[in-house]
Fold:
Amino acid sequence: MTIVTGSESSSQPADDAMSTRAGKRVNPLVVAMRQMLVQGFVWCHVVALICVGLLLAVRGPLAAISAALTAAVVVLFYTIGTVVVLSNARTDPRWLLIVALGSYVARVGTLGGLLAVYLATPTWHVLDTPAVVITVVACTLAWVGGELFAFKRARITYYDQPGDFPDDGSAPGHGETA
Structure:
């Protein structure tokens, strides 16, 4: 399916599916995913700094240290997960969906599992437990919120532009039977 936007006489389409940068075609999905990584990273750090400051004022230095360590773990998990998805951005969309969903389930499940094990083992309570819980929840929500903000602003086409695939039937969906 092709949707034409703008004047057909213009040499450049108004909404290119693949923009060019230094003569190379750039996938808009890769650009959007990089922005999601940056926004999640920034939002999470802002919320982490707020958590550390508030917990330092309210609960003392142990809570601030606990919040900082917890925020570092959340940032590490989400950065690794987003980079894994980003490294698969140029693959088949079906595979990308599996990788993205699997990565998300692994990130949230592992963080939740670590938090559950920490809370279930009282001898491990070296850190301030309320600070750990508050920071995990706040930083996770901040990262996901930053990603959603970036995704909402991303310009990702949901149709193929003319010339994206050759006319020899090698485009996705051609020649497949149910």
